[in-house]
Input
Amino acid sequence: MNIANNNLPVIAGVEITTDSEGRFNLNALHKASGGENAKRPSLWLNNKQVQELIDELSKNSCLGQEVIKSVRGGTTPGTFAHELLAVSYAGWISPSFQLQVNQTFIDYRSGKLVDQVQVQIPQSLPEALRLAADLAEQKAELEHKVEEMKPDVAALERIAKSDGSMCVTDAAKQLQVKPKSLFDLMSHNKWIYRRMGTPSLGLAIKKKSSRG
Output
């Protein structure tokens, strides 16, 4: 699956991140290719021809920056490489993957990925497994959020179904918030009224039906 997210290239459902100098994350490409252990970026870098390519590109680069850089730790760890090296790494993985990566990078550079969603049926078993894993992860995250929201939803239902009136303090306890915060919110929206013959704190929640 190719989905443009935040205008970054996406291959097989994996966002190919870049660093501050525009180098591409080889670890993300490895993951997008299926993540075979024998195709790790570190093994590719041990190749003598690859080192010669890096040296040659460094000599001819007028960018004044490293053509490849490894980042350990932090929020975005990984090996980041110049676009030409990233395409070369993709070719080392497989010719078909190189063509896919090269075309995606072309679209990325030309701006075709902006405001565009591209959907492709997985072309291999690893891609299909990656897509299935991503969908399962998203489903698990949504289910976790629903579980976290259940107490709040239950509290709101108790308040909505309560007969007559409920004081702000009791409502705050149900919602597990500070009474003053709830009072300020409800006062601003004119959702509370003052009971006749009661002190200033004698406030109650209006019934929904009384709001018209």
